[in-house]
Amino acid sequence: MVSAVVRAAFTTMARSDLLKRLxxxxxxxxxxxxxxxxxxxxxxxxxxxxxxxxxASGMMSTLDLLGESVTSAHEARTATRDYxxxxxxxxxxxxxxxxxxxLTQLGLDVDRATCFDNLRRVLDVAxxxxxxxxxxxxxxxxxEQTLDIFSTVWxxxxxxxxxxxxxCLRRSDADVRRLNALGARVxxxxxxxxxxxxxxxxxxxxxxxxFVELTRRLLAGGTYPAIATHDPAMIxxxxxxxxxxxxxxxxxxxxxxxxxxxxxxxxxTAEGYPFRVYVPFGREWFPYFMRRLGERPANVGFVLRAxxxxxx
Length: 312
Ligand code: FDA
Known about the structure:
The chain is an alpha/beta fold. The protein is 51% helix and 13% strand. The protein is built from twelve helices and eight strands. Strand 3 (132-135), helix 6 and strand 4 form a beta-alpha-beta unit. 41% of the residues are buried.
């Protein structure tokens, strides 16, 4: 994790329309363009090709059609339709039936009922086709609503759906207890958003300590948790807890982001852990891409080198 100042700078840049326009012009233009390191492409076909490649390497995938913070019911309906088309394309392509989505993409900022209806539309197509749908977690102001909507769909009988919990948030211990009691599947992450001290740990040691504690709780009483991190210390802690509890390797899975620590991805797969890669794709890749840069400013050097190469 990097300092709050660096993360703040990238959060601000992520909102810049000028940067977004420039990045959109250059970021995906060629197969070697800089955004392709973290984003599988702009089209469904490119995402499916990435999922097939992962499968050939023994890894599972979850496909994420990028987009967030839509501001009109029309955009939310369009995103919902796009997700339903994605489900159909995945089913026809015979890759892992697993998607990730964000509730602000389905209209959470428009109004809750719109978002809920759109989520049900997606789940009603996903369920009979045997998909698992993961609801990503966004910044802290959305956590309560996201968990409420999740509990409601769970309450009316959808089971192949899970959420994400962020170890940086102070509330997460209570949330994990609640989700474990339900029997819901949780993906544990550190948290990608800049959060106020009031609701979040801002010191890396605290975020990491909370991650280990939550992993312990999930492995003890959760349902097939997903431990999503690139941090070797978190992975080692997970392996230790699993060993202590005598858990078989197929009782949980590790997950990482497309393009990040491919060496570790291959190593964990070779060790026999169920391993899933989060594969983001789509035209709205800029905010996602900026969060990845903010996590590791060394990536900026990589982007600049790619831009110089493309400019030649
Ligand atoms: P940390 O940031 O401490 O990094 C540990 C090491 O990993 C670094 O030293 C570096 O080697 C490597 N690394 C990490 N990020 C890198 C990058 N961008 N480029 C290159 N190397 C990098 N967040 C959220 O808020 N809501 C969500 O729904 C999700 N969903 C999600 C799904 C999956 C499958 C993953 C893996 C992650 C998420 N996240 C997320 C993101 C998560 O919250 C977090 O921001 C990143 O995973 C980075 O944290 P790490 O645990 O990797 O540790």
